[in-house]
């Protein structure tokens, strides 16, 4: 099998609904977005790493720290669309979407997502993503935590902000998985996403992964035990600062 060209794209919006300017918050002497960029570089599994952003502030911050940044041309509602625009003319096989608010991104998790493509000679897998087991009932019920259910081959069946599966039977042992927003796409799947309109399920749940399922794409889920810290709120930032030290 020919070696695949793999790049990381870090979509970065300045305005975040729950925590504005969170990517520019200080994390032990550097902005969160710079820490995330450096973490992606440090894995040494990418041919290239870019931050793609709508913000001149983030663009300048990355380039001034020696990193590579791409300025979005159009307005975008989601990370996939932002990345698709940036990679349109790039000669790449696999694009990994690394969330800008995950400075604890680790090599092991990213490598496990990329591994699924190595054994996929029939190109059955359109994209791969991560899930982590959750047991805390508050987290299972929390609409900010996206849950995923999978089939017996770990292909995603559905993503939801509701607890899925619903525990109607109390005598059945049920495992709940949280979806971690790291994706590895085949370029063709990403460009299809960009071209195809949003359908009602994605619009209702506000989860972009659902668009792939609605159009029949296959998402291979990989279980990880590394939960990391996603910085969605000021409280998350405090936890991240404590963990960094």
Query: How many alpha or pi helices?
Result: 9
Helix content: 25-40%
Radius of gyration: 18 Å
Structural class: alpha/beta
Total beta strands: 11
Share in β-strands: 15-25%
Kindly report the average pLDDT value.
91
In terms of per-residue confidence, which ranges show pLDDT below 50 for 5 or more consecutive residues? none
- What is the helix/strand order? EEEHEHEHEHEHEEEHHHEH
Sheet having the most strands:
9 strands, mixed
How many angstroms does the end-to-end distance come to? 42 Å
Cα shape: globular
What does this structure look like?
With 245 residues, the chain is of the alpha/beta class. The protein is built from nine helices and eleven strands. It has helices at 32-42, 56-64, 79-87, 107-118, 137-141, 187-195, 200-205, 209-214, 234-244, and strands spanning 6-12, 26-27, 30-31, 48-53, 69-71, 94-97, 127-134, 147-150, 156-160, 176-186, 219-223. Strands 1, 4, 5, 6, 7, 8, 9, 10 and 11 form a nine-stranded mixed β-sheet that branches. The chain has a two-stranded antiparallel sheet with strand order 2-3. The longest helix has 12 residues, at 107-118. The model has no long low-confidence stretch (mean pLDDT 91).
Q: Keywords, please?
A:
245 residues, two-stranded antiparallel ribbon, nine-stranded mixed beta sheet, 32% helix, alpha/beta
């Amino acid at each position: 099998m020919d070696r695949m060209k793999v790049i990381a794209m870090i979509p970065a919006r300045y305005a975040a609904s729950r925590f504005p300017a969170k990517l520019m918050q200080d994390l032990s002497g550097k902005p969160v977005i710079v820490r995330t960029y450096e973490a992606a570089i440090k894995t040494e599994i990418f041919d290239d790493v870019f931050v793609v952003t709508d913000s001149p502030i983030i663009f300048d911050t990355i380039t001034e720290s020696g990193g590579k940044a791409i300025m979005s041309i159009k307005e975008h509602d989601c990370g996939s669309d932002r990345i698709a625009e940036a990679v349109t003319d790039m000669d790449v096989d696999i694009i990994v979407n690394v969330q800008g608010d995950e400075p604890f991104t680790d090599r092991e998790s990213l490598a496990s997502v990329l591994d699924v493509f190595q054994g996929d000679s029939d190109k059955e897998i359109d994209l791969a993503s991560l899930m982590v087991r959750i047991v805390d009932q508050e987290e299972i019920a929390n609409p900010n935590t996206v849950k995923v259910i999978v089939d017996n081959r770990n292909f995603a069946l559905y993503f939801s902000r509701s607890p899925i599966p619903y525990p109607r039977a109390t005598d059945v042992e049920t495992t709940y998985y949280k979806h971690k927003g790291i994706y590895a796409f085949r370029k063709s799947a990403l460009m299809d996403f960009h071209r195809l309109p949003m359908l009602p399920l994605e619009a209702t749940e506000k989860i972009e992964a659902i668009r792939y399922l609605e159009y029949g794409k296959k998402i291979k889920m990989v279980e990880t035990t590394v939960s990391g810290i996603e910085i969605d709120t000021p409280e998350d930032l405090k936890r991240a600062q404590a963990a960094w030290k």
